[in-house]
Specification:
By secondary structure, this protein is mainly α. The protein has helices at 3-10, 14-22, 41-57, 59-70, 74-104, 122-129, 133-141, 160-174, 179-192, 198-236; strands spanning 30-31, 37-38, 115-116, 119-120, 148-149, 156-157. A two-stranded antiparallel sheet has the order 1-2. Strand 3 (115-116) and strand 4 (119-120) form a beta hairpin.
């Protein structure tokens, strides 16, 4: 098979096929006496496996998986797959935590020694969330929480909306999201005065996680077919 034969099946360029081989995604090809690459059905199966892995695992991880398989390190490839599944599970847990936080959001109750009519101070809020006050100040610098200042003391006063925002930020940060990724979500909540506008975003988030899970299943099937083809090819010999 020529590079163009592999490329045509998937709408790729012949240069892409050569690049995949150079990257270790495809096994090394034999060369003709004139230096042209020649591919086999095993290369075609490797290409199908890689393209099946990309939607669920991403290009970089799919590349690492194929490299590991092609050098005979199947266990390394399976560990990479396990790691991807772990990341997906973490993302699902983060989504569930955000949804639970949204359901539980309520006005800030009065607390002796730290809260008065109109809001709560930074110390009690940090304690409630299990954070350091410095973290809340960092979030304030990033525009994620916007407490007002007491005109007499200069102390920060967090309203119920500020507490809501802090709880959302806290859950998303626990899920590994960067502050700059969280900012648009918080802005959306603020602009509507509540969390109702987040429902479409959460539905989309759930749909994307489900699609990623399905893509991982397809990738697993493609990789399994390639592993079986490699075993058969090895038994058949040159």
């Amino acid at each position: 098979m020529r590079p163009v034969d592999l490329a045509r099946e998937h709408g790729l360029s012949t240069q892409a096929i050569r690049n995949y081989e150079d990257a270790g995604i495809l096994p090394a090809a034999e060369r003709t006496v004139h230096g042209y690459r020649t591919y086999t059905p095993l290369h075609a199966q490797a290409l199908r496996a890689f393209l099946a892995l990309v939607p669920g695992h991403g290009h970089q991880t799919a590349t690492s998986i194929m490299r590991a398989v092609n050098r005979g390190a199947t266990d390394d490839a399976l560990r990479l797959i396990d790691h991807s599944h772990g990341q997906l599970l973490d993302d699902r847990r983060t989504l569930q935590a955000v949804e639970a936080t949204l359901r539980d959001l309520a006005p800030v109750p009065d607390e002796r020694g730290g809260t008065f009519i109109g809001g709560t101070f930074i110390g009690p809020l940090a304690s409630r969330l299990g954070l350091r006050p410095a973290t809340l100040r960092k979030w304030e610098d990033a525009g994620l929480v916007r407490p007002r200042r007491d005109p007499r003391t200069g102390y920060r006063i967090y309203s119920a909306a500020d507490v809501r925002d802090a709880r959302l930020v806290h859950q998303l940060r626990r899920g590994g999201y960067l502050l700059e990724q969280i900012a648009p979500l918080i802005a959306q909540v603020r602009s509507a005065g509540g969390v109702a506008p987040l429902e479409p975003a959460l539905r989309d988030w759930r749909a994307r996680l489900s699609a990623r899970g399905r893509a991982m299943l397809k990738g697993a099937a493609g990789l399994d077919a390639y592993l079986r083809a490699r075993a058969e090819w090895s038994r058949a010999g040159p």
